[in-house]
Amino acid sequence: MSPTAISADLPQWCGKAEGCPQALLGWLYLTHDQNDQWMPGSAWGPLPTAAPRSAPPPSDDTSSLVEQLTALSLRRPPRPPPPAYMCHLCFKKGHYIGDCPQARPKGEGLTPYQGKKRCFGEYKCPKCKRKWMSGNSWANNGQECIKCRINVFPHKQRPLEKPDGLDVSDQSKIHPQHLCQKCRSLGYYCRREY
What we know:
Mean pLDDT: 73
InterPro entries: ZAR1/RTP1-5-like_Znf-3CxxC, ZCCHC24_C, ZCCHC24_Znf-3CxxC, Zn_knuckle_CX2CX3GHX4C, Znf_CCHC_sf
Domain 3CxxC-type: 118-186
Protein name: 3CxxC-type domain-containing protein
GO molecular function: nucleic acid binding; zinc ion binding
Radius of gyration: 37 Å
Keywords: Metal-binding, Zinc, Zinc-finger
């Protein structure tokens, strides 16, 4: 078989026989009995084999540099508050509320509000993205999503508005006690005592 006869059967990307890579042409010109002898990699050399190696241990210079960088604090020292500023948490002068020694750690608690009273909460289910609001929101207690049946903690909580001592939340609405974690833990309607 001649190269001109084979060039008609070449793939389109190869074009004419002159433009094809030599290894491809060599494979195309093999006869049927030579095809069994051809080994992959023989045209390009032996195939590389991956030998398992462990990573080299870090040098002393690298580890000391890492230690120095971790010890280095990139935060500026906090500037002192104005002389008239009073911390709104402990009502003492000399520090901001964010630096107050009486402040709770940020990660403590499952909800933004950590008080004892009932408050107004905004919820969003992470699974179905359903949103709802409730006037029966409590610290570290969630409510079950009606669709997904997973317990969801509020992402926002604020005090109930009580003009003239009256709760403005609609008292006629039925509170689904089977979805409220507080009701389930108490064993009765959570608004009865609070």
